[in-house]
């Protein structure tokens, strides 16, 4: 019974079988078969790649929206600056100036190996010292007498934070700043720096401008909504300083 069923299944065929005298194996026939298989495989892979590929189509149109903000996506690492001293400031041509922006901006504390050890949403030290900075903006910062008066007015929490920042610098802490910065659709600039610190506090922490190491790595800096295949010119930009300080300025046309 098993042999009969096997023969029945073997004889099932939708097409008539060729006669035996027509089945002659030749080298030329094998070559044609191999070439045909290669061509079919090539066409299949080409069509599959075409189906899986993403193509970007650029279109230009007049922007009719008014009053909407432009999101700036930021993801940067400062390996030599603690999160407590970093602030994000923005100013545009309309005169709008925002200091120490904390909207959708996060700061990750990093150890000397680049591993995350804590999260900051806004720096208490920077926020507090903005008040002192506004009152002291028109004073002569080079007079020792005024410096002594200012040092006496520092509260205990600020002094503790200064000690904390100094210890972070000694331990080699860094900071990763990431999030979204919403700005008006006009020309302007934004800074990620230690400008938010009062000059006296900054002097107590760093001991001089030459000790402010602004080395940084730009992982992502993009404008507007993200889409597949977008290319941002400053992505993966690395600027590392050794035993010196300075200011880096990037000019971008959006």
Describe the structure.
The protein has helices spanning 2-11, 27-52, 124-135, 144-153, 156-170, 199-206, and strands at 69-78, 87-92, 97-98, 105-110, 116-120, 174-184, 188-193, 216-223, 237-239. The chain has 254 residues and is an alpha+beta fold. The strands form 2 sheets. A 6-stranded antiparallel sheet has the order 5-4-6-1-8-9, with no helix packed on it. Strands 3-2-7 form a 3-stranded antiparallel sheet, with no helix packed on it. Helix 5 (156-170) runs parallel beside helix 6. The longest helix is centred in the first third of the chain and has 26 residues, at 27-52. The model is unreliable at 122-152 (pLDDT under 50). One of its GO terms (cellular component) is COPII-coated ER to Golgi transport vesicle. The chain crosses the membrane at residues 30-52.
Strand order of the largest sheet: 5-4-6-1-8-9
Unreliable runs, pLDDT <50, ≥5 residues? 122-152
Query: Cα distance, first to last residue?
Result: 80 Å
**Helicity range of the residues?**
25-40%
Number of strand segments? 9
Rg over CA atoms: 33 Å
Strand fraction equals 15-25%
H/E order of the elements?
Answer: HHEEEEEHHHEEHEE
Biggest beta sheet attributes: 6 strands, antiparallel
Number of helices: 6
Structural class: alpha+beta
**Shape type:** elongated
Question: What is the mean predicted local confidence, pLDDT?
Answer: 78
Subcellular location: Membrane
Pfam families: COPIIcoated_ERV, ERGIC_N
Family: Belongs to the ERGIC family.
Keywords: Membrane, Transmembrane, Transmembrane helix
């Amino acid at each position: 019974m098993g042999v009969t069923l096997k023969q029945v299944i073997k004889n099932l065929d939708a097409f008539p079988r060729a006669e035996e005298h027509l089945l002659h194996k030749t080298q030329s026939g094998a070559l044609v078969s191999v070439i045909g298989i290669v061509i079919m495989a090539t066409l299949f892979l080409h069509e599959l790649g075409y189906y899986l590929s993403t193509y970007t189509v650029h279109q230009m149109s007049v922007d009719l929206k008014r009053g909407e903000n432009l999101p700036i996506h930021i993801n940067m690492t400062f390996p030599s600056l603690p999160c407590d001293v970093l602030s994000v400031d923005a100013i545009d041509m309309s005169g709008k100036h925002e200091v120490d922006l904390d909207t959708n901006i996060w700061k990750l504390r990093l150890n000397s190996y680049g591993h995350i050890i804590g999260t900051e949403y806004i720096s208490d030290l920077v926020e507090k010292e903005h008040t002192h900075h506004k009152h002291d903006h028109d004073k002569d910062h080079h007079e020792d007498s005024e410096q002594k008066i200012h040092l006496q007015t520092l509260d205990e929490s600020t002094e503790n934070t200064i000690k904390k920042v100094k210890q972070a610098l000694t331990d080699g802490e860094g900071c990763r700043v990431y999030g979204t910065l919403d700005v008006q659709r006009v020309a302007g600039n934004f800074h990620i720096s230690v400008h938010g610190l009062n000059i006296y506090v900054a002097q107590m922490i760093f001991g001089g401008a030459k000790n402010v190491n602004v080395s940084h790595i730009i992982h992502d800096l993009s404008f507007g909504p993200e889409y597949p295949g977008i290319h941002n010119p400053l992505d993966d930009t690395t600027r590392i300083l050794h035993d010196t300080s300075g200011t880096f300025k990037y000019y971008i046309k959006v």
